[in-house]
Amino acid sequence: MINSQTIQKLGNEVSFSSFSNEERSAYAKVISECLFKDKDCAKYFPIDPESNDVFLVLKDGVILCKLVNCAEPGTIDERVINKKQNMNIFLMNENLRLALNASKAIGCQIINIFPETIIEQRYEMILGILWQILKVSSFLNFLL
Q: Nearest 5°: phi and psi at 17?
C-alpha cells in the first residue's frame, strides 16, 4: 500500500515518488533496534517511525556506515567514520561514499546511487539501499 507521495524538483528535473509508510516505519524501528546502544549513534535517537526522521538521520552517513557493520561486522573500520557534530558537506560525502562502497562489498546492488541521492533525500532510493543492507543482515543472521 502506497501512503506517502512526494514531488521533488532537482534543477530542471521534476520527479514523483511514492513509498509505503509501513516500510519506512519498519526500517526506522530496525535501525533503532540495531544501533540504539551504539554511543556514536546516540544523537540520532529516538527516530520517530511515523515521520520522515529516518531519512534525515541517514544524511551524514554515520548511521548507514554503522548499519553496514551490523550486516557484516568489520566491513568499515570505525576509525575512518567521521562522527563530528555539525559535519560539513565534504565529511558527509566521505561517510556516504564509504557506506555505499562498503554496501557493494557485502553484496548490495548500488546502481546510480550516489552520496547526493541521500543528501537530496531521494526517499524511494534511500529505502532501496536500506532494504538491501537489512536483507544482507537478515540473511547472515539466519545463517549464524
A: -140, 160
Residue 16 in domain: no
Does some domain include residue 135?
A: yes
The CA R_g of the chain, rounded to the nearest whole Å, is 15
Reading the block at residue 26, the C-alpha cell is: 519498519
Is 12 contained in some domain?
no
**In this predicted model, what pLDDT tens digit does every residue of 85-101 receive, in sequence order?**
999 999 999 999 999 99
Place of cell 565534504: 90
| Residues spanned by the domain of 95 | 21-143
Alpha carbons 32 and 82: distance in angstroms, whole number: 20
Measure the CA–CA gap between 6 and 39, rounded to whole angstroms.
33
What is the grid cell recorded at 63? 548511521
Query: pTM of the prediction?
Result: 0.83
- Tell me how many domains the chain contains: 1
In a domain, 128, yes or no: yes
E-strand stretches of the chain? 4-10, 13-19
